[in-house]
Specification:
- By secondary structure, the protein is α/β, with parallel strands linked by helices.
- The protein is globular, with a radius of gyration of 18 Å.
- The chain is built from twelve helices and eight strands.
- The protein has a single domain, classed as Phosphoenolpyruvate-binding domains (TIM Barrel).
């Protein structure tokens, strides 16, 4: 089994080199057995602290469950400057997702917090991550996905992609659609053009790129144009299965 640092480095390398191989979904429920089942069908699972009732105390069990399911784990923070980043990293999570990033300064501050000295100010403690890896090496850090979710973020996408701490840019199409006054019109021409802008910015700097989309697999692939997809969420998929199965049962009755 890979150590935590090795696993995070492997994920970062894959994000940069071949992100289309990573099928990803978002997790917002705290049950580790359910989480393990979800992880068994995806390559990467985002444990979502931004849009869920999950807390720091839930993350450790979910990170372990994702690993048991055979996937890589990422935690989406509540904001780029979220508190308790050190404790989240000590769970052994493979990567961090940064929402609502718009400036290079935000990434520079994140880099300071995520790197050990002398490159940064991350503290060391004998927790799951360090017990697996031992003494950290210079430059050791988890993978990092930067979400592009506003017009300002698109305007600075080139500089965001150029930052050393960024391994991939992901267009948050839902939030972006609201920012350009086209709420949830995800097939809109401007949104499709914006994805192309994000892709070019990422590829120009040897970084990965992706698209966060809804729950229609065929539409997701079409929108992504062959690129990687952050597909749906655990709650949405479970809801859709329940709706489908119960409608058949009620119709049969």
């Amino acid at each position: 089994m890979l150590g935590v640092a090795q696993s995070g480095s492997e994920l970062a390398a894959t994000l940069r080199a071949s992100p289309s191989s990573l099928l990803t979904t978002v997790l917002s429920t705290r049950d580790p057995v359910f989480c393990e089942a979800v992880a068994a069908h995806f390559d990467v699972v985002w444990i979502d602290l931004e849009h869920s009732a999950l807390s720091l105390s839930d993350v450790l069990a979910l990170v372990i469950a994702v690993s048991a399911g055979g996937a890589k784990s990422m935690v989406r923070l509540t904001s780029p400057d979220s508190e308790n980043l050190g404790a989240l990293l000590d769970t052994g999570v493979d990567g961090i997702v940064l929402p609502r990033v718009e400036t290079e300064q935000q990434l520079t501050e994140f880099a300071r917090r995520v790197h050990f000295p002398p490159l940064g100010e991350r503290g060391f403690a004998p927790r799951r991550a360090s017990l697996a890896d031992g003494v950290p090496t210079p430059g050791q850090r988890p993978a990092c996905i930067v979400q592009v979710e506003s017009k300002q973020a698109v305007a600075t996408a080139e500089r965001l992609a150029a930052h050393e701490v960024c391994d991939a840019l992901v267009l948050g199409s839902s939030d972006y659609s609201f920012d350009v006054s086209r709420p949830m019109q995800l097939a809109d021409q401007e949104i499709c053009q914006t994805l192309a802008t994000v892709r070019r910015a990422a590829q120009a700097h040897g970084k990965g790129w992706g698209l966060a989309v809804g729950g229609d697999p065929a539409r997701a692939r079409a929108l992504a144009d062959g690129g990687p997809v952050i597909f749906s969420s655990d709650v949405r998929m479970f809801w859709e299965v329940l709706a489908s199965r119960t409608s058949v049962l009620r119709g049969a009755g």
